[in-house]
Design goal:
Length: 363
């Protein structure tokens, strides 16, 4: 049952994907450990340059002969009005003061053209390095990019938070689609409607997506163990993508304070914020999120706000100060364990098999 069509297409032992987590979390060690243990390891390349992307791919190739994948942020338009940026920066200067970080006077605004070129350069690296699987979030790449990757035999995975997004991903040529439930940690992948309308719980999302597309559906959001994998399969998914569970693993590059925050968090401490990046994302509530809440609707869009808060997040990391770091996590942190990626995968598979066995006996 677990060596299903999805696992066959991904050429993995199990239908389990380690979520790409941009920002240094998906280290080559983590990606390779997952692929070596029977899952699909994924690089979160969202914040990497093309050169860094190539370096990571090559490092992973040294650590595993198995397949792995890479994930890109699809660039979208963003508003960058000067008054908005200056107002946001003034508010952030208050936080900088608390952290003893120099106030920011010069603001370098990300330029859409540059962001798009960086994305295209990353795609070029994926083609040159023959990375077998590419996934996307925040939108669907152009027909040209899709065609190019497909011609090179690369398997494509889209991200959807609603049925319409999944249908659009299928129509654009994606081979599979991740259904990202509202439980999910990190950034929301919605691209058709705003975040509020796209907050569909996984239990509702997966069967409705499965009924409306022919491509395999991969469930993501709050899945941490074999019960979650079994439940996702029952709902019509062909596999799972797990982020927070892998973030807590030994090989993950998450900051120690981030891992600890997740390992000690309760399900009612996970909130959505757009204050860190300008895009809605789920993480453990801290002082930054609370203090910025009255202003968050006014902050500029991603990637502008992300660029504005970069020095704050960096300083907080250096100071081991969890109150000003982005502590992304899904809604099941009580199920997180600090263990190796292999131990996690082995446990998930064993528990899923037991759970499915018990279900068939009780029918
Ligand atoms: C720390 C963190 C970073 C993430 N970064 C990315 C990313 O770069 N690209 C992406 O497609 N999804 C990203 N996600 C979302 C995951 O793909 C997935 O939807 C989510 O982890 C599922 O929920 P879970 O964390 O409860 O397992 C991230 C999630 C987390 C927790």
């Amino acid at each position: 049952m677990l060596k299903n069509d999805l696992a066959k297409r991904l050429k993995t032992r199990y239908p389990m994907i380690q979520a790409p987590m941009a920002g240094g979390i998906t280290t080559p060690e983590l990606v390779a450990a997952v692929s070596n243990a029977g899952g699909l390891g994924m690089i979160g390349a969202g914040y990497l340059t093309a050169a860094q992307t190539k370096e990571q791919i090559r490092e992973i190739k040294q650590l595993t002969g198995n397949l792995f994948g890479i994930n890109f942020f699809v660039p979208g338009g963003f508003e960058a009005a000067n008054e908005k940026i200056t107002a946001a920066n003034d508010i952030l200067n208050r936080i900088r003061k608390q952290l003893k970080v120099e106030a920011k006077a010069e603001i370098e605004v990300p330029d859409l053209h540059r962001v798009q070129n960086q994305f295209l350069a990353q795609v070029q690296v994926a083609v040159e390095e023959k990375v077998p699987v590419c996934s996307f979030t925040f939108g669907i790449p152009s027909g040209e990019v899709i065609e190019r990757l497909k011609q090179n035999g690369i398997l494509l995975i889209g991200t959807a938070t609603t049925v319409d997004e999944a249908v659009e991903a299928e129509q654009a040529g994606m081979d599979m689609v991740v259904a990202q439930g509202s439980e999910a940690g990190g950034h929301r992948g919605n691209f058709l409607k705003d975040h509020e309308e796209s907050m569909i719980g996984l239990m509702s999302l997966v069967p409705q997506v499965a009924d409306n597309v022919r491509i395999p559906v991969i469930a993501a959001g709050g899945i941490m163990d074999g019960r979650g994998l079994a439940a996702a399969l029952c709902l019509g998914a062909k596999g799972v993508q797990m982020g927070t569970a892998f973030l807590a693993c030994k090989e993950s590059g998450a900051h120690q304070a981030h891992k600890e925050a997740v390992l000690h968090a309760k399900e009612d401490e996970l909130v959505l914020t757009r204050s860190f990046s300008g895009k809605w994302a789920r993480g453990v509530k801290n002082a930054f999120i609370s203090e910025m809440k009255p202003h968050e609707a006014l902050f500029p869009d991603y990637p502008v706000q992300n660029a504005l808060t970069q020095d704050i997040r960096k300083a907080a990391g250096k100071q081991n100060n969890r109150e000003f770091m982005s502590l992304w996590s899904g809604q099941s942190p009580r199920l997180a364990k600090h263990q190796t990626a292999k131990a996690l995968i082995d446990h998930v598979i064993k528990e899923a098999e037991e759970t499915m066995g018990k279900m068939s006996q009780s029918l």
